[in-house]
Amino acid sequence: MGIEQKVAIITGASQGIGAALVQGFRDRNYRVVATARSIKPSGDDDVLAVPGDIADRATAERVVSQAVARFGRVDTLVNNAGIFVAKPFTQYTAEDYAAVMGTNVAGFFNITQLAIAEMEKQGSGHIVQITTTLVDHANSNVPSVLASLSKGGLNAATKSLAIEYAKRGIRVNAVAPGVIRSPMHPVSTHAELSALHPVGHMGEMSDIVDAVLYLEGASFVTGEILHVDGGQSAGH
């Protein structure tokens, strides 16, 4: 394998958008380190599956160290792992808070810190967070304070990191989706969820993959929060 073959780490990679991202990067001839709580070994020699809870720093350490040991480098990190709990604010429990902040914030912090340390060695890299359009477009029908607290923090951190590392060859961006058609949304909810978007339908997982891969190739784009939300952030 030539040194030019890049390596992407993708969190929350066992299903849904994460699994689609793994395939999207493989289609670009990237080698991929895929991590999730219950991810199965891959039959593809260029995909390394590392099981573990991303909220645990030991998982992040294992993912990055195995990426370097197996593939020799880390070029891209996609922080896709996330928990969304929609409840009225006063009904959130301490367990809800710990789970959301653990995965969405600590999970981001741990692996991003370690990945950037590797990227600095080669003077290049790209990090993408998957956040949510609800940060910029709150909806009383979708109570989501913990999502806004955690993913809004990631949007802010995206811009801060982009500026901190701009002259070191490391770009940092985010994709803020609307509701994406995936196994987590029962068919019975599709009409209601589609109506949330000005375009009248939900997004597809391929829309998020396309957005991430656009950012991956957009060498002059950093600090960007790219809304892939069917127009929600623009208004209604």
From TrEMBL:
InterPro entries: NAD(P)-bd_dom_sf, SDR_fam. GO terms for biological process: fatty acid elongation. GO terms for molecular function: oxidoreductase activity, acting on the CH-OH group of donors, NAD or NADP as acceptor. It comes from the Bacteria. Signal peptide: none annotated. Keywords: Oxidoreductase. Belongs to the short-chain dehydrogenases/reductases (SDR) family. This is Gluconate 5-dehydrogenase. It comes from Bradyrhizobium diazoefficiens (strain JCM 10833 / BCRC 13528 / IAM 13628 / NBRC 14792 / USDA 110).
